[in-house]
Amino acid sequence: MKKAIVWAAVIALCGAGGYFGYLRYKKMSVRQDINDFIRTVSRGDLKLDMQEAGELVSRDSVDVFPPNKGFIIEVAKKEGEYVEKGDKIMMFKGGERMDSDQYVPVPILAPRAGLLTRCVGRYGDSSDETRAGKRINAASDCVSRVVDMNTLAVNLKISEIDIYKLKPAMPVDITFSSLPGRKFSGRVDLVAPMAEAKNSYGWGGGGASKVFRVVISIDKPVKEMRVGMSAVVTANIQAKKDALKAPIETLFQEGLNCYVHRQKEGYEAEKIQVFPGLRSETEAEIAGPLKPGDRLFTAAPETLR
Q1: How far is Cα 88 from Cα 281, in angstroms, rounded to an integer?
Q2: Which of left, alpha, beta for 137 (phi over 0: left; psi -120 to 50: alpha)?
Q3: Burial of 37 (0-12, 13-18, 19+ CB in 10 A)
Q4: I need a labelling partner for 176 at 20 to 30 A (CA). Which of 212, 225, 276, 295 fits?
Q5: Residues of the chain whose pLDDT is less than 50?
Q6: Phi and psi for 189 in degrees, rounded to 5?
Q7: What is the pLDDT of residues 244-302, one digit of tens each?
Q8: CB–CB of 145/127 below 8 Å?
Q9: Three-state SS letters, 175-217
């Protein structure tokens, strides 16, 4: 009797040891970094933002020209200063020589109120610094530019693919790298009806891509803004409340169908067909037999063992 009891205890211990050994083996057979390949289904707001880089410009500026060729003999208002209409910007003297008595010095006045900047050439190059003693070779040479800071806007170059995503009056957010931590509101004011070439190579223009000019108006410009600043414009194209969504990297496509690998236990998973909807850069709305909290693989489980 005692012998039978001992054998029963031995068998029970062996069975328990075998079971716990199996659990330990199963646990050790699963890579410890499995969570690196798992993402979770969730429910929440999903929005699709479109971001484009642009340049701050003034939609209203006036170039200032001298009455003739000659010399700048005095600078009354420097680049970067604000002027009112009629303010004296500089004194100018015509002639071939600055010390000649043939011409009388005359003032050059601001044609409008605004910020004084350098002149900008046809190809975007700026003129030399305006200074006393500078020679002006012709009456067609710009000597200064007055920029209306109340008409600041951001110019964008939008590709053919994205141009119909933007509509006039669409609200946008604007940020500037020069003004960190500050966000400004604005609206799409103009979507150009005609495309222009972004770049070209060679005489034939082979490889040129087409872009459309889009102008973004700024609701409340501030004096810290400067023409030429780099800007980033963010437009909310689509949004959906309380959407069932999953990280984009959990979706796999086979032909025209889309699948996910839902975790069962360890690296065991079931392949489930889903139907993606609205997509952002990081998440996708999904329809199918999934629920919040489901754990999805970012790679086929059989490739991770």
Answers
A1: 53
A2: alpha
A3: buried
A4: 212
A5: 2, 6-7, 9-10, 12-14, 16-17, 20-21, 25, 27-28, 30, 200-205
A6: -100, -30
A7: 999 999 999 988 899 999 999 888 999 999 999 888 778 999 999 999 999 999 998 88
A8: no
A9: EECCCCCCEEEEEEEEECCCCEECCCECCCCECCCEEEEEEEE
Residue of 126, 125, 90, 129 lying closest to 110 (CA atoms): 90
Pairing label, strands 135-136, 183-191: unpaired
Encode pLDDT of 240-257 as tens digits: 889 999 999 999 998 889
Structure tokens at 54: 């642009």
Q: Given the DSSP bridges, would you call strands 144-147 and 61-64 parallel, antiparallel or unpaired? A: antiparallel
| Length in residues, the chain | 305
The tokens describing 31, both together, are: 């890579």
